[in-house]
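In response to reviewer comment 3 from the previous cycle, which asked for concrete evidence that the modeling workflow produces usable outputs, we include below a single protein chain processed end to end. The sequence was submitted unchanged, and the resulting structure tokens are shown without manual editing.
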Amino acid sequence: MSATPLHIVIAGGGIGGLTAALALAQQGHRVTVCEASVQLKPLGVGINLLPHAVAVLDGLGLLPDLQAMAVPTRALVFANRHGQPIYEDQRGVAAGYSHPQFSVHRGQLQMLLWNAARQRLGEACLRSDARVAGCTQDEQAVTARIEHADGTAESLRCDLLVAADGIHSALRRQFYPDEGAPRWNGMMMWRGTTVARPFLDGRTMVQAGHRRAKFVVYPIAPPAADGTQLINWIADRRLREDGFGGGLTAPDRADWSRAGSVDDLLPTFGRWRFDWLDVPGVIRQATQILEWPMVDRDPLPRWRHGRVTLLGDAAHPMYPIGSNGATQAVLDARTLADELARHAGEPLAALEAYEAARRPMTTRIVTLNRQEGLDAILDMVEERAPDGFDRVEDVVDPAVLARWVQDYKAAAGHRQVVAAA
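The workflow returned the following structure tokens.
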């Protein structure tokens, strides 16, 4: 527990903000979470939590709840657009890590965190319909400006303000007013969920295709009594070839998170029938389809501005490659709490230490993902064997792939929680 408990306001009740709230409250700080949504609902589709993020949530006492709602991912399989496996990377406990990797419904995870925060912080400390639109500060404190859906506003004074308000962060925009829109790589993503029979072993994540068209699929809930399973899928289709690496301005926000159409996907994926999965069948049976541009932002030169710092997508939005988005936000939260404990009585020094620990790593991941990260494996095989192969060893050396995967995982921090032999 910190020697001097602080009042900390967190802008944003997403995964990163709520994890930070729980970690900070665990150390005795008084935390207020301000969430823009008028009513929080379990919205969204699937995400992956890597073992080092699961270790953080375990430390917050949430592992039993996660185990009940999520799927412990056994492996990540890379495949070509014909469904032929290229490389299988063991994940979680199966790979010797101290914690599993979990595939889970994002909205259900957010509600788990919200309810845990409500129980531990108190109802009054979780404020919905409270958008943090900006702030002012002096030497002693920072004052958050809060706007409500009915047009009214109020101020909330605190010791520290954490901006966990996402890729369109109002606080980030206050400190970087000329940054502009997120950067787009020319790829659109259609994300959906489908209730279907389990594929492969019911615990495997697959990435199939190449840089122009990719289909990612993994289960996000344990099998139901009728034997079916909720499956998350992502269909990526490149609309612009000149955006590789993030060279384009993102489409207007009116085009974000809108309902997608099966008709947008079948011309590309309508013939992708694998031995283990009928891709067009999964798309046609979707319970929901949402559409997003694949975007990020350029890494920032600094996160801390006085008594304010950034966290999660407000600090380092990145392409959804390597299952890093939610994981890195969770790691931010844990590090922020730890540094405040380590620098008790010196909150500004703690914010500097937090940034020093997290900003270089997240900058590396943003850069790696702009180069396609692990997905570059798919492009290599597509270029060398577009019509498929009899033996993958004739196309690419498995040892080269293994080194590639391990190097990326090390850069993303996987090595932090590998169990001792």
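The first strand starts at residue 7 and ends at 11. We consider this sufficient to address the reviewer's concern, and the full set will be provided in the supplementary archive.
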